[in-house]
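stage 2 :: seqdesign
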């Protein structure tokens, strides 16, 4: 059982940070005990008939056999592929460490309760949160520019965060098998997009005879973390889940729920009326992060398709 390092992987600096974390873990555990996506799937040079799907399968297969997941999360738009992996691990009862150097807190209103991450569901699913929000101690580099000094302070901040993360990972308890919650027949959990006005009702999920539609409460709650725990329980105990995947990338809550559903074989669909396609060497066009695209059972392009998928 290995330690899985989840990270945004579309830019060199993101991959370098994750590689540094994986390296520090491997010094303590051995390289065979650490899995680093992109690196260990040989993503740049991998050849497959449907490369995106193959990469999804390789990452998903490793997620089934991990001791812990360590995810690097920064900024107001957490990577949707990373959130999917977090949801997968959390649904299986695997310890999750979230590492961030983000110096911002988040709230739904200007004076509302704050959370470390933009969606309180991330805060509640974390076994541990490792946070290093401030620059490292100033250094006296003879002859160096103030830019070099600033870079050194950032490097020190990263080293502090990674060291704390590695120490925490080594102290995690062995994960216990997590029982899949009993599901309520004819109950559908509908997760809207926070990128739309006032967390509008997900299209196609209005009142339905014989169908109980459950909706999140955390976005307007006075205690968002308690509400997030209730939302998670309501989603995983529903017969199926439908999420609004609209936004610059799949919203964090939607991606977390897709990961959980994928881990527990729970039917899940994503409402996505419009797509921006990504193209990478040797890979088929993807209409969303490949962990999202292949993690959902159905992509629904209209309110009518949502209604039909939920059922009579």
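stage 2 :: out
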């Amino acid at each position: 059982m290995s330690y899985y390092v989840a990270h945004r992987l579309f830019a060199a600096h993101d991959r370098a940070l994750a590689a540094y974390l994986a390296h520090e873990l491997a010094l303590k555990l051995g390289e065979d005990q650490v899995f680093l996506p992109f690196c260990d799937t040989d993503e740049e040079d991998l050849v497959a008939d449907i490369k995106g799907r193959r990469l999804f399968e390789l990452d998903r297969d490793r997620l089934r056999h991990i001791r812990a997941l360590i995810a690097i999360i920064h900024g107001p738009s957490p990577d949707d592929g990373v959130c999917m992996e977090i949801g997968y691990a959390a649904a299986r009862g695997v310890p999750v460490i979230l590492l961030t150097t983000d110096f911002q807190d988040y709230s739904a209103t200007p004076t509302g309760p704050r959370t470390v991450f933009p969606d309180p569901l991330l805060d509640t699913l974390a076994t541990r949160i490792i946070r290093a929000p401030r620059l490292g101690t100033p250094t006296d580099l003879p002859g160096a520019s103030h830019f070099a000094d600033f870079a050194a302070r950032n490097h020190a901040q990263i080293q502090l965060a990674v060291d704390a993360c590695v120490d925490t990972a080594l102290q995690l308890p062995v994960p216990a098998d997590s029982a899949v919650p009993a599901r309520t027949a004819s109950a559908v959990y509908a997760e809207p997009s926070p990128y739309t006005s006032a967390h509008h009702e997900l299209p196609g999920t209005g009142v339905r005879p014989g169908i109980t539609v459950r909706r999140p409460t955390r976005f307007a709650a006075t205690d968002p973390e308690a509400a997030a725990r209730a939302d998670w329980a309501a989603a995983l105990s529903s017969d199926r889940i439908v999420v609004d995947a609209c936004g610059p990338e799949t919203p964090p809550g939607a991606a977390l729920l897709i990961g959980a559903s994928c881990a527990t074989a729970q039917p899940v669909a994503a409402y996505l009326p419009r797509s921006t396609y990504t193209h990478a060497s040797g890979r088929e066009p993807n209409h969303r992060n490949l962990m999202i695209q292949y993690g959902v059972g159905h992509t629904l392009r209209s309110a009518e398709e949502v209604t039909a998928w939920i059922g009579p």
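stage 3 :: structure notes
- The radius of gyration is 20 Å.
- The mean pLDDT is 94.
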